[in-house]
Amino acid sequence: MLQVAVVGSGPSGVYTAQGLVQQGQVPEVRVDVLDRLPCPYGLVRYGVAPDHEKIKSLQNNLRTVLEHERVRFLGGVRVGPDGLSAARLRELYHAVVYCVGAATDRHLGVPGEELPGSWSATEFVSWYSAHPDSLSDGFVVGARAAVVIGVGNVAVDVTRMLARGAAELSPTDMPQAALAALAASPVREIQMVGRRGPSQARFTTKELRELGGLPDTEVVVDPAELALDPAYADPSGLPAAQRRNVEVLRGWAENPHPSGTRRIRLRFFLRPVELLPHAGRVGAVRFERTLPDGRGGVTGTGRFEDIEAQLVFRSVGYRGVPLEGLPFDTSLGTVPHLAGRVLRDGSVSPGEYVAGWIKRGPTGVIGTNRPCAKETVTSLLEDAPTLARRDVPPDPLAALRAEGLDPVEWEGWQAIERAEAALGASLGRHVVKLPDWQSLMEAARTTDAP
Ligand SMILES: Cc1cc2nc3c(=O)[nH]c(=O)nc-3n(C[C@H](O)[C@H](O)[C@H](O)COP(=O)(O)OP(=O)(O)OC[C@H]3O[C@@H](n4cnc5c(N)ncnc54)[C@H](O)[C@@H]3O)c2cc1C
Ligand SMILES: NC(=O)c1ccc[n+]([C@@H]2O[C@H](COP(=O)([O-])OP(=O)(O)OC[C@H]3O[C@@H](n4cnc5c(N)ncnc54)[C@H](OP(=O)(O)O)[C@@H]3O)[C@@H](O)[C@H]2O)c1
């Protein structure tokens, strides 16, 4: 029997567990999927926007893996300095696969970045997704104009959530306080700003197009700004995804529909250089106009534009966090590996593996993690005969309990789900997420059947 710990229950962790139990190569593999949170599914629960119900429903596919007879979910177990050490974990299992994602945000490195009113997209996403570590509140209070820096899919999510009204948000599972705050939001103008051109934006066309369908919201693009991109005049040489983006933007530029009490402006070729204060908080963002350099990058022009904003979201990508006891490449924000096998000082570290964003970096949609996990599982199964020779305790959970850990098992998670359904019913909504550690842990420990 091979006992494997998977650390992290996001898509890469669940796809790894699935790959390990649905193969015919090694007869009996048992997998414990550990997560520091009492709830599974990683960014599918705590990142995917609440109004994207169809993508959220992927949780049902992930659920069937965690309910497999040879897979156990052990929530509320943090691997690292304040929890279970990587070294101890290694003693308890034949192999450990780290699937811990990329938990923090990248920084802009410009003056004024830390002014009140300037937030990372990560903080906003965590708040509207009810992540129990979210401490911030009041994002939109007193803000008329917002700037979102970056033109990736997270920037699109943040922009769209700022423009949504109560009618569209209430059917979602977003926490009640976030719903109330966004429903009362005074934000009327949102500018989403890219430092390069429209043909280099990272958002996908489906997500971009959705902005044009928001009720009571006008989308504005300036044809002259789009035309700074040489590919705008003739997009035929672009890859299909970029060409489609340019065509959607062209449609908005050529057929403006001025209507709605909210406005989203999509801006390009503007590089953030400073956040400017006003009355003790951010009041504007100063951008330098850029121009294409002909090699996919941009150069500054020395001309500047200040965009008024009482609210700024920096949506410039995520970043992996080092995990004590594991090697870490600080320049890439990932764990060095060879086909998923962790490398220590350039050599394979037996029994330690990675998958997902901590392996590849913070790019790719949920499905991208499936082949990534598959590669890691293939490496692990190749190593299995050697790994299985080492003695490990027969039941790692008993060993964890003996050390004072009390994981939230699947029944505990199901109790959280019931509590969220009951909260939703009491508020006249569907399911409403519990937003804090105390209510999650209280619910998890109430494991009586309904
Ligand atoms: C805001 C946002 C929205 C997105 N929306 C979409 C979308 O709509 N559609 C789409 O296809 N893709 C979307 N993505 C991309 C998708 O979410 C990622 O590709 C995917 O979640 C990465 O999977 P992962 O398992 O590597 O990491 P994660 O999903 O981040 O999972 C990591 C897990 O590890 C746990 N963990 C971390 N550290 C520890 C530790 N020390 N001990 C124990 N557990 C730990 C975390 O709690 C978490 O559960 C989105 C990404 C973001 C950031
Ligand atoms: N619905 C969905 O499918 C969905 C939703 C959300 C997220 N995701 C996925 O999750 C992953 C992460 O998304 P993301 O939006 O966080 O990252 P991303 O796709 O990497 O986009 C980051 C954006 O930030 C910009 N940027 C980086 N550094 C900057 C700086 N210093 N100044 C100004 N702009 C800067 C980038 O511009 P440059 O290109 O110029 O560097 C880019 O526009 C992506 O793969 C995404 O597709 C998918």
Keywords:
450 residues, alpha/beta, Rossmann fold, FAD/NAD(P)-binding domain, 7-stranded mixed β-sheet, 6-stranded parallel β-sheet, 22% strand, globular, binds flavin-adenine dinucleotide, binds NADP nicotinamide-adenine-dinucleotide phosphate
Structure overview:
The protein has 450 residues and is α/β, with parallel strands linked by helices. It folds into two domains: 2-103 and 320-408, 3-Layer(aba) Sandwich (Rossmann fold), CATH 3.40.50; 106-317, FAD/NAD(P)-binding domain. It is 34% helix and 22% strand. The chain has 18 helices and 18 strands. The chain has helices spanning 11-21, 42-46, 53-56, 59-66, 86-92, 121-128, 153-163, 166-169, 176-183, 205-211, 223-226, 230-233, 240-254, 357-360, 369-387, 396-402, 410-426, 437-444; strands at residues 2-7, 29-34, 71-74, 95-98, 104-105, 118-120, 145-149, 189-193, 217-221, 262-267, 270-278, 281-292, 298-308, 311-314, 318-319, 337-338, 341-344, 347-354. It has a seven-stranded mixed β-sheet, with helices on both faces. Strands 6-14-7-8-10-9 form a six-stranded parallel β-sheet. It has a three-stranded antiparallel β-sheet with strand order 11-12-13, with no helix packed on it. A hairpin with a 5-residue loop joins strand 12 (281-292) and strand 13 (298-308). The mean pLDDT is 96. The chain binds flavin-adenine dinucleotide and NADP nicotinamide-adenine-dinucleotide phosphate. Residues 108, 149-155, 157, 194-196, 200, 202, 204, 207, 272, 315-318, 362-365 line the site of NADP nicotinamide-adenine-dinucleotide phosphate.
